[in-house]
Design goal:
The protein is an alpha+beta fold. 36% of the residues lie in helices and 16% in strands. The chain has six helices and five strands. It has a five-stranded mixed beta sheet with strand order 2-1-5-3-4, sandwiched between helices. Strand 3 and strand 4 form a beta hairpin.
């Protein structure tokens, strides 16, 4: 067992965990943050995507030992990125309004990938959106509604 200290969604945590336990499992089991989903367990689908020190990562591939001292944002913390008192982040609102969320397995990872994308490219074109979300698979929407949600979120963010 190892003692790990990390900050998740703005809250500091000190955990006693096996050092090779996956970050995904620590989030879901130890911290009860079940919004992060496991799709494939192999880093191929992006359902388990989180922000680790601002970088988009597949939490199923990250041993928790590598997160010592890190700052992590999960889907549960995305609304907090919108500012105090906000219920939903504009990205979450756009996914709802444009039908970008269907079965829900890919949605948390898609939203975090979108947030990461819009940090890099506040007004992305379609090819940048496609590239930015390439690591996230959706089996329901055919991506059209997801791309529309990302474009709408970019317009909302740009109008602030």
């Amino acid at each position: 067992m190892s003692t790990i200290t990390l900050t998740v969604n703005g809250e500091p945590h000190r955990l006693e965990v096996p050092p090779m336990k996956r970050l995904l499992d620590v989030l879901r089991e130890d911290l009860q943050l079940t919004g992060t989903k496991e799709g494939c367990g192999e880093g191929e689908c992006g359902s388990c995507s989180v922000l680790l020190n601002g970088d988009l990562v597949n939490s199923c591939l990250v041993p928790v030992l590598q997160t010592e001292g890190a700052t992590i944002t999960t889907i549960e913390g995305v609304a907090d990125l919108a500012g105090p008192g906000e219920r939903l982040h504009p990205i979450q609102q756009c996914f709802l309004e444009h039908g970008g969320a269907q079965c829900g397995i890919c949605t948390p990872g898609m939203i975090l990938a979108t947030h990461h994308l819009l940090e890099k490219y506040p007004q992305p074109d379609l090819s940048q959106i496609q590239e930015g979300l390439a690591g996230n698979l959706c089996r329901c929407t055919g991506y059209t509604r997801i791309f529309a949600a990302v474009q709408a979120a970019a317009r909302m963010e740009g109008s602030k």
